[in-house]
Amino acid sequence: MKNSIYKADADNASAGAAKASALTSSQRAAVSHGDGPALILAGPGSGKTLVITHRILYLIRQRHVPPEDILVITFSRAAAGQMRSRFRALAGEEISGRVSFGTFHAVFFQILRLSWHYRASDLLRDEERYAILEHLLNRSGFAWNQDTEFLSGIASEISMLKNERIDPSCFYSSICPDDVFRQIYQGYRDWLEREHRLDFDDLLLKCFELFDGYPQILKKWQERFRYILTDEFQDINSLQYQVLRMLAMPENHLFAVGDDDQSIYRFRGAKPSIMLNFPKDYPGAAVYVLEENFRCAPVITLLARKVIEENRQRYEKQIRPAENLSREKPGQVVLHGFSDLWSEGKTLAEEILAEESRGTPPDQIAVLSRTKSECGYFAEVLMRYGIAFRLRDGLPSLADHWITKDLTAYLRLASGERRRSDFFRIMNRPLRYLSRSCTEGETFSFDHIRSYYQAQDWMAERAGQLEDDLLQMEGMAPYAAVNYIRKAVGYEDWLTDYAREKGIRPEQLLQVLDELQESAGLYRTWEEWTEGMKKSRSRRQESSEEGVILSTLHASKGLEFDTVFLPDLNEGILPYRKARLEEDLEEERRLFYVGMTRARYRLFLWYLHERNGKSQMPSSFLRPIAEEPAGTKTGSIEQRFLQNR
Asked: Is the pTM of this model over 0.85?
């Protein structure tokens, strides 16, 4: 059953808050909340930063709360800086400098620094963390491919254990065998204790232990921060919430602002249920809802609402366009199906160029993808068309993945090169039982290998089959060559077996293969392809000041653009193929909702009919949009090629 809410009566807003004429009645009601806990449901573009900053001012000027008693917690340093800057513009330097703004980690570190005398040098940097995990993995004897993505996965699972306070013996890793993970986890914890170091998760864990074990210290901090305001409350995890509740007691002046419909970080440990259960944790808590969307054109707002209303586990609310929203640029939503990936990429480039010719600044155009691999593909598309772009979230280069190195070794050998290192890389991928001793020197020849195995006909035959496969690939276009390696050579079957042997989900590695094949289809020769990947790696490392924004949907939250493209809206991508449970599907739908509501005026919703020779179905999330009439009073909806919806 969907959660119900009540809307606080705006008429109860105090005269002091009412003076803020820029506020709507619902915003004024939230700002002028009295004492005790309050939950503010702030939909997309509803002015939550405005509400938080005016709330701080209201507490200081109308309720005479000392600025030093107020703590504002955000989820990123950038958000904390923006909030502080907005409040400074509202209240002046003298007052704003006395209010505490910071992230959970920054605030909790200050508490640990003053209580247990930790120093900044005790904090573990990301590169140190990865170096320790790499050392522990190598020492464990587990065969892995020195892949940064693998290290990132291990680090994420360690974070999950700490933030959820899970016993390692009850945790089952999705990255590697459970016994290996538990060995790495224990070794990592032992190192931190031995060196008296903290990682970012320890800032939360140690703060909890401090408050739980030393009531007098907790009391001191409760008296220090009597009024707590927290932004993006839907992203909070269990440990953060426990510490926050301890800090807010006994007065519980907790002002929690967020949107349950934009809770998209469950994979990081965020718990949507915390926000949904807030009224149970705080009986009698006030709940305010900000329903007006000041960002999106009416047609975008209303279609996004139709989508999110499909979710069941949420607060019911009637998100609507703000009445005074500018009509200078009428909204437009384009729902379009493409025959294949290549036509989608070509149209993307053409539409971006058309947007720029209409005067839309490049940094007001965004391409938002479900996964980093898709984002990387569209980066290559834009490079091919000479369109400047900026990557938001440090996407790894496909050229650095070990599977890429396997395939390029095959392609170099197919072109006639005979590097011994390339041969060693692929000789048993798939397994052929070839020995490293069958070649000598920096280069090799198949004649020498056949001579080496002359007494073992079956081994000579395997080497001969490899040579035949390389001859078959000679002159093939990159897309066809990758497909041949996958299917005819048997690399895909080997990769699947390898994943299962190492305790890795096969789809993680097969997805890399899919991305490589899609990337290969953009080039005529393998030399062009490898050169393109090198340029892509270089381009991703640059910090361009201008250009179209490429981002994952997760990294786009909090941003807004004039024009947004959401490509590849297919079953298996959005919703993602691993989303099988109802709670997973609801989170995927929230992710789609976040993507839709990044757009101010123009929103392109695209899907494919075919991908890598396989038929594709449009995302089920598109159904409410496809059912909408093409012409509405709020803007235009254009639909094309929906025959298989």
From this structure: no
